[in-house]
Write a sequence for this structure.
């Protein structure tokens, strides 16, 4: 015989909160120790709870934009189950999400931009109920024209209406000028700097292109080859 | 800058340390593999012949005697005949029967022979060989051959001079005899002139122009003969003085001798590896500088400008058990595992992103 919550309380106590049983995906632990905490501390450094559109940019490719975007989206979705999060892959030149997750590349952002598909039809659900992906879509030779089209801001606006957090994974800023346009569609932008990859002399130029829209810098892959003993000795 | 250098060093540690280890190691092995050598040494005191006129001397008057003789010896060492001359008198004679003997001899002397001017007058000669007796023998022969060659050269030059001045004297004396004969004939043909000459002496030339002409010819021939005789005497003096002086100009102050043990080998074992170590360290330092200066990427928070806001610092995202240099796809798939991506395999290598 099943019992309801009202039966358990006997009607004498008011139910002030209900703790939902976590889904298997929510219970999954991150395979990289400490990575969840790193991304958690990252999203708490800016006000994500009010709902926002966030552009993740970097100066050159290979600095970890997609990894950081993915980590942020996952951390928010896992920690805040009541928030709907969408990760949009706007790098149409180096699309990786579909391949990494074993998804069909189309329909994706390209198809949405070409007005062949509604955005809702292109969204891919994930193991987390509140996290969706909008993958780049099929390869196209007219990626620049598509990203500069009037349809792009419309898609972002549509996603903003249907989701609490929209994360835009952008192309490399110094390689594609469209990144600055995409960053302008977001309320805030974070800039990824990867140690050993980001050219220090081009960092200022890249930040300048975003015209003060950058909330701050995320240093990725921060590891030093110098042994900790030597570093401690140097600090003395 | 120190942090950058340290970063570059530990990042490319193997490559940077390699020259400082490999070069001395290789040199040490090469030195140890080289057979022990004995070095024979001789000291020679050389002088310029001060009694000779410098203008006739073939030596460079602006160089000290030791340097002059060293240059002369090294020039001689470039000739096949001189080397063959030494080789035939030593155990190196066996080389002469081989094809390409000249080149081999040249190589041996270029490698194992040294002539150093230690000051203005002391010329130190060294020869190294695996056989102690051979080193002494070759150096003895070389010194003797050099002395003999120098004496022969000087003697030859003097002989040419003597022959030349002897020939000149013979001609001059013949001319003198001819002039005297002409004068005698003139006096015989003119008895009056002979009487006048007997009465007033050579003033007779003022009266008789023919007599004056004949007398002038005799006087000129006499002067030529005197001059030729004086030159011949000087050449003969130079020959005897030169040959005598050679003994003084080439004195062996330190006779040829070689140490019983191969002392230079010890020097080689210490000096060469140390020099190689130094060269290796210099090369390593150059590599380190090259790596540090060519790295224009952001390496630490200190490389970012002070006014930039650091939102967070992410560690190197690598799942346990996956290769250290695994590619970005591995990190992405590991991060996305919670959302349903396939976990990267253990030991997975770099993938094309």
């Amino acid at each position: 015989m099943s019992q309801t919550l009202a039966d358990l309380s006997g009607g004498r106590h008011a139910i002030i909160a209900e703790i939902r049983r976590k889904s298997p995906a929510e219970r999954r632990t991150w395979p990289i120790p400490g990575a969840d905490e790193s991304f958690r501390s990252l999203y708490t450094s800016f006000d994500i709870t009010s709902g926002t559109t966030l552009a993740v940019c970097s100066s050159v490719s290979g600095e970890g934009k997609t990894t950081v975007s993915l980590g942020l989206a996952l951390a928010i979705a896992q920690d805040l189950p009541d928030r709907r999060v969408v990760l949009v892959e706007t790098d149409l030149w180096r699309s990786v999400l579909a391949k990494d997750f074993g998804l069909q590349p189309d329909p994706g952002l390209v198809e949405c931009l070409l007005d062949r598909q509604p955005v809702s039809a292109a969204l891919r659900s994930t193991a987390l109920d509140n996290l969706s992906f909008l993958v780049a879509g099929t390869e196209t030779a007219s990626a620049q024209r598509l990203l500069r089209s009037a349809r792009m801001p419309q898609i972002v606006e549509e996603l903003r209406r249907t989701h609490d957090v929209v994360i835009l994974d952008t192309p490399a800023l110094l390689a594609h000028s469209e990144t600055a346009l995409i960053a302008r569609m977001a309320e805030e932008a974070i800039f990824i700097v990867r140690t050993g990859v980001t050219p220090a002399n081009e960092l200022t130029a890249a930040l300048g292109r975003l015209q003060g829209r950058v909330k701050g810098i995320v240093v990725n892959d921060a590891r030093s080859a110098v042994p900790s003993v030597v570093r401690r000795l140097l600090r003395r | 800058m120190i942090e950058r250098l340290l970063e570059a060093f530990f990042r490319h540690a193997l490559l940077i340390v390699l020259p400082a280890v490999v070069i001395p190691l290789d040199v040490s092995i090469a030195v140890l593999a080289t057979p022990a050598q004995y070095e024979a040494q001789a000291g020679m005191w050389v002088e310029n012949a001060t009694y000779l006129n410098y203008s006739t001397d073939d030596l460079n008057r602006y160089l000290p005697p030791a340097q002059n003789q060293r240059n002369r010896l090294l020039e001689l060492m470039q000739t096949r005949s001189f080397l063959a001359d030494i080789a035939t008198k030593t155990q190196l004679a066996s080389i002469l029967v081989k094809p390409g003997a000249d080149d081999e001899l040249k190589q041996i002397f270029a490698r194992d022979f040294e002539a150093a001017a230690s000051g203005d007058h002391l010329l130190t000669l060294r020869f190294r060989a695996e056989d102690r007796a051979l080193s002494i023998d070759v150096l003895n022969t070389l010194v003797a051959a050099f002395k003999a060659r120098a004496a022969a050269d000087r003697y030859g030059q003097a002989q040419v001079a003597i022959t030349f001045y002897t020939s000149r004297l013979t001609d001059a004396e013949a001319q003198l005899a001819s002039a005297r004969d002409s004068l005698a004939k003139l006096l015989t043909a003119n008895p009056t002139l002979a009487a006048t000459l007997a009465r007033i002496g050579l003033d007779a030339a003022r009266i008789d122009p023919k007599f004056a002409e004949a007398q002038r010819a005799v006087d000129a021939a006499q002067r030529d003969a005197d001059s030729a005789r004086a030159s011949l005497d000087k050449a003969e003096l130079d020959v005897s003085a030169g040959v005598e002086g050679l003994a003084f100009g080439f004195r062996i102050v330190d006779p040829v001798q070689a140490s019983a043990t191969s002392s230079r080998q010890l020097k080689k074992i210490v000096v060469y590896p140390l020099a190689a170590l130094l060269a290796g360290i210099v090369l390593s330092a150059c590599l380190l500088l090259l790596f540090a200066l060519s790295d224009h990427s952001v390496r630490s928070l200190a490389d970012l400008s002070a006014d930039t806001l650091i939102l967070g610092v992410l560690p190197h995202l690598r799942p346990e058990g996956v290769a250290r240099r695994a590619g970005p796809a591995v990190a992405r798939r590991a991060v996305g595992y919670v959302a349903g991506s396939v976990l990267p395999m253990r030991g997975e290598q770099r993938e094309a992103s």
Observations:
- The mean pLDDT of chain B is 81.
- The first helix of chain B runs from residue 2 to 11.
- Chain B touches chain A through 46 residues (CB under 8 Å).
- Chain B has twelve helices and five strands.
